[in-house]
Design goal:
mainly alpha, two-stranded antiparallel ribbon, two-stranded antiparallel sheet, 15 helices, elongated, binds arginine
């Protein structure tokens, strides 16, 4: 069933239908879509647009439909999009009263609501996973208290640092990511329902009450913005992309450190893979993949920003292209955040090797200069003296 057949005498060319239909990917919004419809039905009844009995029928039908989708899944074809599918299935289930559900609503404010609800949920999930990761980093830092390794600048050994210090640098990044997803969730968590197609709704629906019913913190202020805005999507994907960049930096260090040249850390066999040709290999595939997934999510960010750039108000079908990027960013980040904590906990740190590496390469040169300063030598002079000493030691091949 089409939602807009009245004006058309001819059928849609199947090629355009196949090209334009979004059900195959937006069906995963079924829960959000049904929640939104339940809240809208209650809002219609509260405004006296439909009767309480009609609203009860709609709500019950929608709840049964949700149970059916939860049990059997949602078909990938047979309707234009998830909104059309829900309405068609509701009609099969409860009959003509289903035709009243879409009063005072457009798919434009409906889909804007669905993606906001999705972003809110995805923020909550990613934040929980980020906390797990931070806790894991803190646990490893506690366990490795006192483990020393060379700290680097320019990838040259610089000064000795504690492994805990190094790992907790990443905890800081992930903590900021946690906060960013919180900001994103807060701004996403307002209801666009009532914006209609673009110009608002002709019915006296109490938008605030509908928003509260959905657990949202308020309502959008401008109906044109409400249906055209995809900032929640862009913000979510940016927060995801930056988190992936942080994950990528950490993964790169683990990959480097696991190589023989560093030899600081060893992957557990359960979190490493072998080579089909070289029998001796043990590869850190998991960390390498996390390192690479940043590229994918940065791609999602470029997708959404490019779709939005130059797009006139208000709704345009272009906005349907927000979803796959959003879902991909949410899924990719979730997968990385769930695999990293167990991988991190299972690492074996080569404390002796790290300490020996920190003892070579004059990493205490700065401390010696500072010592001379405490003995009354101006720092510039101390720096020069120690520099000459390093040069002498290098010439003589000693530490
Ligand atoms: N599938 C559409 C999307 O995701 C739903 C909104 C369609 N609205 C419209 N006026 N064609 O954007």
């Amino acid at each position: 069933m089409k939602l807009w057949g009245g004006r058309f005498a001819r059928e849609t060319d199947p090629r355009l239908a196949a090209f334009g239909d979004s059900l195959a990917f937006d069906r995963r919004l079924w829960e959000e879509d049904i929640r939104g419809s339940i809240a809208h039905a209650k809002g219609l009844a509260a405004a006296g647009v439909i009767t309480a009995e009609e609203a009860a029928l709609l709500v019950q039908g929608l709840e049964e439909l949700a149970a059916e989708f939860a049990a059997d899944g949602v078909p990938a074809e047979g309707a234009e999009d998830i909104h059309s599918l829900v309405e068609a299935r509701l009609l099969d289930r409860i009959g003509p009263v289903a035709k009243k559900l879409h009063t005072g609503r457009s798919r434009n404010d409906q889909v804007a609501l669905d993606i906001r609800l999705f972003v809110v949920r995805a923020c909550r999930e990613r934040r929980r996973e980020l906390l797990d990761l931070i806790e894991t980093l803190v646990a490893v830092a506690e366990k490795e208290e006192g483990t020393v390794l060379p700290g680097y600048t320019h990838l040259q050994r610089a000064q000795p640092v504690l492994l805990a210090h190094h790992l907790l640098a990443y905890a800081e990044m992930f903590w900021r990511d946690w906060e960013r997803f919180g900001d994103c969730r807060r701004r996403a968590n307002i209801s666009p329902l009532g914006a209609g197609a673009l110009a608002g709704s002709g019915y006296p629906i109490d938008r605030e009450t509908v928003a509260r019913e959905l657990g949202m913190e308020g309502v959008t202020a401008n109906s044109l913005d409400a249906v055209a805005d995809r900032d929640p999507v862009a913000e979510f994907i940016f927060a995801a992309a930056l988190t992936q960049v942080h994950l990528s930096r950490l993964s790169e260090e683990l990959v480097l450190w696991a190589g023989e040249e560093y030899g600081f850390v060893e992957f557990d066999e359960a979190f490493a893979t072998g080579s089909s040709l070289m029998p001796q290999k043990k590869n850190p595939d998991g960390a390498e993949l996390i390192r690479a997934k940043a590229g994918r999510v940065i791609g999602d960010l470029v997708t959404i920003l490019t779709v939005l750039k130059g797009l006139p108000l208000a709704y345009n079908k272009d906005l349907q292209e927000d979803k796959e990027a959003l879902f991909d960013a949410a899924d990719t980040l979730g997968a990385c955040l769930r695999i990293l904590p167990p991988m991190l906990s299972s690492l074996r740190w080569n404390r002796d090797r790290m300490r020996r590496t920190a003892e070579e390469g004059f990493l205490n040169a700065t401390d010696l200069a500072d010592y001379l300063v405490r003995r009354g030598i101006p720092f510039r002079e101390a720096h020069h003296l120690v520099g000459r000493l390093v040069r002498r030691a290098l010439e003589r091949g000693v530490g």
